[in-house]
Amino acid sequence: MAIERDQVEVLSGIRRGETIGSPISLLIRNRDWVNWQHTMSIEAAPDASLPGARRAAVTRPRPGHADLSAGLKYERHDLRDILERASARETAARVAAGAIARTLLRHLGIDIRSHVTEIGGVRIAEPAAVSFTRIAALAADDDVRCVDGAVAQAMRAAVDAAREKGDTVGGAFEVVAHAVPVGLGSHTQWDRKLDGLLAQALMSIHAIKAVGVGAGPDVGHLPGSLVHDEIVRAAGPASGTIPAITRPTNRAGGLEGGVTNGEDLRISAWMKPISTLMTPLRSVDLVTMEEEPAAIERSDVCAVPAAAVVGEAMVALVLANAVIDKFGGDSWTSLSSAARTWQATVATRLTAPAPSA
């Protein structure tokens, strides 16, 4: 929304452009707070003449939101205590923290981008066929973040149609990490598998209901010959970060057995429509137990493009942890040195033997 032009203030943990080991504190000021301070502080502002004061407590939970389940769990009678904490505004902090992780990854040559593949039933034909170069070419301020201009226009039309009906729409996006080294993650324990960690991170984003790696759900109805990515010797440049090896396809999304395989990491997520409808669905007032329309809160119609940016941040946080786990070190110098040594080790192992005399 237009008011949300966030600026991050760094309060601690960084000096002269470098981390110094103390916690990195990032402050994002809520510019919308002035419009809601009386709603959130009723006891402190009892004068009903003040803007926002004395608004009724939220007692009609919205279908699809945390209002009912969390309200009962935490025994809150005013569901505003739930809906404010469950708000996706929390993801602004994830994006800020993800920027720190992205900086680390960028110094290793790893780049993370995203693109929207579907909104309101309008989708691009083959998301997995979209190259990283095309995704990286998307403008940072693109409102839809779709690589196909014609499809992007149809997506905008779907959002506009939903707005006119007082409805909302969901969709899907894909996050792609480029130039990821082989060997991040592990196959040895369930909680070390990188695909599991990435799936949990993306599923934790508000309204995400499904996550796919590479070809995702399609692998369930295709034969193995059309799912697994063949391994061939590279006649020219390698397809990924493993020298001398090329993969003609990347249906695995850069992950095999919970470990990165050197190809681009490709993770998709599907987002349900936003829970607040301007034409509300049926609900029950938890005070009177009478059936009434669900509460209406400030909201948007579609948040898929914004969710894609949050997805980038979550992938960055998980990958940064995996990089540190793999290469270790107490400084950037030692970590980057270990990463270079690893790349050299892989290259040496895959050097073709000299022909016999």
Q: What fraction of the residues are assigned to beta strands by DSSP?
A: 15-25%
Using only C-alpha atoms, the radius of gyration works out to 24 Å
Q: What gross morphology would you assign?
A: globular
Strand order of the largest sheet: 6-5-7-13-8
Which structural class do the helices and strands define?
Answer: alpha+beta
Q: Report the CATH C-level class of the largest domain.
A: Alpha Beta
Helix content: 25-40%
Question: What low-confidence regions span 5 or more consecutive residues with pLDDT below 50?
Answer: 44-54
The end-to-end span amounts to 71 Å
SSE string, helix = H, strand = E? EEEEHHHHEEHHEHEEEEEEEEHH
User: The CATH topology of the largest domain, please?
Assistant: Chorismate synthase, AroC fold
CATH superfamily of the largest domain: Chorismate synthase AroC
- Tell me the count of domains: 3
Question: What would your notes on this structure say?
Answer:
This protein has 357 residues and is an alpha+beta fold. It folds into three domains: 1-55, no CATH class; 56-86, no CATH class; 91-349, Chorismate synthase, AroC fold (4-Layer Sandwich). It is built from nine helices and 15 strands. It has helices at residues 37-40, 67-73, 80-85, 91-107, 132-136, 149-164, 194-203, 304-327, 332-349; strands spanning 8-12, 14-15, 18-19, 25-28, 111-119, 122-123, 171-178, 208-213, 232-233, 245-246, 255-256, 259-260, 265-271, 282-284, 291-293. The strands form six sheets. The protein has a five-stranded antiparallel β-sheet with strand order 6-5-7-13-8. A two-stranded antiparallel ribbon has the order 1-4. A two-stranded antiparallel ribbon has the order 2-3. It is globular. Mean pLDDT is 91; it is low at 44-54.
